[in-house]
Amino acid sequence: MNIVIPKANTHSDVAKEQHLVPRTYMRQWSYNNTDSIYIFNKKQKEKAVQPANVNSINYIVGFHDIKAGDIFVPDEALEELFGFISRQCKVIYEGRELDSLRKLNDKFWDYDKWEIFDLDGVKATRKERNEIRRVILQSRYTFIETEWCYQYEDNWIQFIEQIERKVRSGNLKVLIKPQVLSNDELIKLMEYILIYDFRNIKGNAWINHIIDEIFPEELAETEIWDKDRVHKFNKTIGDELKHEVRIKSFYEFLYKKSGKIKLMIDNYLDTMGIRVCLTTKDAPFITSETPSMVIKNIDGLYEHIFVATPTMLITTYKTNNLQRYMVCNLKRKYVNRYNKYIARNSEILITNKADIDFEKIISK
Question: Is the pLDDT of residue 229 over 60?
């Protein structure tokens, strides 16, 4: 064949071990100002509280990568994955030409049936076919992880420290100030609440519920054969569908501020205000693999909470006054109550204190 088979688009500068809870976020709970934190794994209670490194937890390899064979693949990703084939080759599948990038992706799962010819009509050898497959399989489109870092993760510490400084400028136990935080800051804070919710390992509960309602349980739980998995971590059809919806949601939001995440942010901004709950370093909030979550509180009401820092938790409340927010200095018993919510709704608990009795928190 007279074609040039390029190197795979691996984007070696973009992390493969993609932390669903960002390391810069978890470092806020470091007990020695490094990468060291304490964790409590509820599935390994016999180990009690253990030291851990932020680099070694809460990540999945390639979770936000778009790969050949994925259900959602935007045009620019198709070009990265299959462009070298479409420009130099003719591919026949079951007697029909795969004459578009989209068709190549849709039929990549059945690559063994591809007949590949160069533009002079010379058919690919087995070695050439294997090399083409290898390049496609090793390539990945990394827009989501790159843009997440650029738009949100890299600015997190500077942003949240500024927010906490501002809200701590008042001395009253409860105050309502429409002017201290700007409207842009409130919008950005709401974006962080929702995007951390979508990014965590469990994903957004609303999206998961819709998929669970649409697809029969037996279909959602059908296991995908290992050789047919685009992403090895998606073991069932339900896993794959939820993952694809999350990827599409992230792409649409990061690319052009549209889609499901933007819809939810706008809905929150239209109907809810922000309550900033403050505590002290002596009575910190814990966090977990799900920093942002919807919980059922002691009054039986659903409440969206986001643990922003060890000394600041953000929650939402119903209001029609979008220019107002509330700041509360919590007593220890209310900090303990939120820690209980976090502990009961998570699996891997994170703290900067080795002497926390998580069994007691969970059982209360």
Answer: yes
